[in-house]
Amino acid sequence: MKKFRLFIDQQKEEKWLNEMIQKGWVCRRISSFGVYNFEKINHFEQAIRLDFQSFKSKDMYQQYTLLHEDFGWKHIGGSRWSSLQYWLKPTDGLDELYSDNASEKCYLERLVKYYGACTFLFIILTVGLFNNALQYTNLKSAYFTPGLWDKEGTAFIFAFLFETPFALLRFGSPWFIIICGIAFTTTYLKYKKELEKTA
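and the corresponding structure tokens:
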């Protein structure tokens, strides 16, 4: 079974994946486009945990995955280039990636930095790409190719396909700012709570 979901809160995503296990469906693979591949199961004593890491080298990534595999974790999603990693393990009392407040704080700190960087990037893109407010309320106005809508046949198809990625970037940037901004704020508030616990 496949399901499409988009999450801006990794803790909610983790909770949802574990609720699916209790319903008899374990996630075996996650695509970078929000598609979750589930498999029917009979034993529910499994847990999925999410981790957020960045790797400067291939060796660092390999050491990270080998360390977790040595402790019985199975890597079901993520890569060296995607910071979010997904791990599956039988519930044996040692199925938490973060066993203390300090580790949880470090995890949330990494998320705060990531969402802050994403929000800043999309603000820069939006300022650089937008000439008028219509571009993010009307997708058609985000196409800048002169005479695009008057073209016909293959000339239209080629011009349309070439312009579409740029138009989507112009149209989507403000919405990405809002999404990343919400994710940044909620993660920062959770991070602040963890700081208060360890203060």
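(Above: one complete record from the training split.) The beta strands are 2-4, 25-30, 35-40, 46-52, 74-77, 84-90.
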